[in-house]
Amino acid sequence: GRANNLTRAAGVRSLNEGKAAACSQGVALVCGVMAQEKHKGLSGWASWGKGLVGSVSKVVTKAFSESDLEVVNPDEDDGDTTPVKHEEERKHLWQQLSQYVGSDVMSLLSIPTWLMEPFSTLQKMGEITEFMDCLNKANLADDPHVRAAYVAAFACGAYPSIKRTYKPFNPLLGETYELELADGTLYLAEQVSHHPPIAAAHAENENFCYDIVSAPKTKFHGNSIDVFPYGTTRIKLKAHGETYALVPPICRANNLIVGRTWVDAFGDLLVVNITTGEYAALHFTQCGFFGAGRYKVAGSVYSPDNEPKLAIAGKWNEQISYMACDAEGAAKKGAEGTEMWRANGIIKGDHYGFSEYSKLMQTMETAPHKGHGLLPTDSRIRPDIVAMLEGDARASSAKHELEERQRAEKKRRVAENGSWTARWFKPADRHTDADMYEDIKEFEEDVIPWQFTGAYDERKKTISDATPIPNEFAPWQYQ
């Protein structure tokens, strides 16, 4: 009963509706082009439309001569300098991708390096740590609704970095990324599965424990791709014995083949205190015509009996605040907001659009002990990423060599009837603590949770500033 009331009160769209919405752009595109032809009074428009619908590949191939297929970047007139590059390479890429329209392409292709940034997906996952102080503040807050607001703000912190349009490198099986925050909190991520791609991460200090399993799926539409961020997240606030779970919104990358690529996030973010029942329901507005609603986030924090207690508003690329609300959950007129975080802007002139925080994540300055005793599986020392950072043209060949070594290792492992074992996480039983919340249960039901084993904590006791810094990337267990 509480789960159903929660969904109705918050106005959270069902997960099925979100999945259906993922297909809307392609449907609207086809209908829009057909409607244009009918309006023009062209004879034979119906047969043309029938042929168009009958072959999605033909629709997208026609993109190179039909400007209707480009979704205009709403930031083009607002200082956006993302270049339209590699037109010939993009056409060639379409020849490879056309067969995958409607498919999940997470691990089907080897992406060329001209589409990529010198960052791994594990590092991308870790960019949310820039806003981890929200969890410290949540734990120190006496008001349960303020605590829920800060946890929701932290969840929004995953989105400023998605504005970058270059793709991070897929981690190799067993690859890791370690990060030490300014307050000494350690964050560790590990790639625990290659097919399907799954990563697990853990961070903990005296205030909170943060665990996430990321198992995203995609749907390729031709000139765009939707990313469904499936997985499990648990955030524990130690002072209050509370655990939070969440369901995040969808992301879409537009103009992969034609036009200037840009990324949007839209749908609903649901954050639930599964211990006591408070929850936050936020809506990410999908970018409309002429940039209407671009980046907008708004919603409310509710009591367990669905009474609005606080309003939350902001932009997912800039800042998130909470303020007093009225009986409907909207911000009270004239209410002063409390800013929970503000994003650092991108470095002016940076080719990839990195922020200062992201740049630091690439260096040994943010590694535990400044890199002394760093795991030799760390993304920072991957040869292809290092080469790209240094502007070395060998990045592409280094990437290919690593992928071939990974295939060779798998072949040897299969031949020896062996099994690969994650070092720092282990498979766990499916979470059942949030099953009373239907949206969370449905979102998590196909994801195998991975549990932090604690072995990393034991290892770090043996590390000091005198421990050598690794100079060779070595995730291999069968070579």
CA distance, first residue to last residue? 54 Å
Tell me the structural class: alpha+beta
Got a strand count?
A: 19
What integer value in Å does the Rg equal? 23 Å
Largest sheet entry = 15 strands, antiparallel
Low-confidence stretches: 1-5, 7-68, 77-81
User: Average pLDDT, to the nearest integer?
Assistant: 85
Secondary-structure blueprint:
Elements: H1 2-10, H2 15-21, H3 24-40, H4 45-54, H5 56-61, H6 87-97, E1 116-120, H7 121-126, H8 133-140, H9 144-156, E2 167-169, E3 176-180, E4 186-193, E5 198-204, E6 208-214, E7 217-220, E8 224-228, E9 231-237, E10 242-247, E11 250-254, E12 262-273, E13 279-284, E14 296-302, E15 308-315, E16 319-324, E17 338-342, H10 356-361, H11 383-389, H12 395-415, E18 425-427, H13 438-444, E19 450-452, H14 455-460
Parallel strand pairs: 1-2
Antiparallel strand pairs: 3-4, 4-5, 5-6, 6-9, 7-8, 8-11, 9-10, 10-12, 11-12, 12-13, 13-14, 14-15, 15-16, 16-17, 18-19
Helix pairs in contact: 3-4, 8-9, 11-12
General description of the model:
This protein is 28% helix and 23% strand. The strands form 3 sheets. It has a 15-stranded antiparallel sheet that branches. A hairpin with a 3-residue loop joins β15 (308-315) and β16 (319-324). The protein has 14 helices and 19 strands. It is globular. With 479 residues, the protein is α+β, with helices and mostly antiparallel strands.
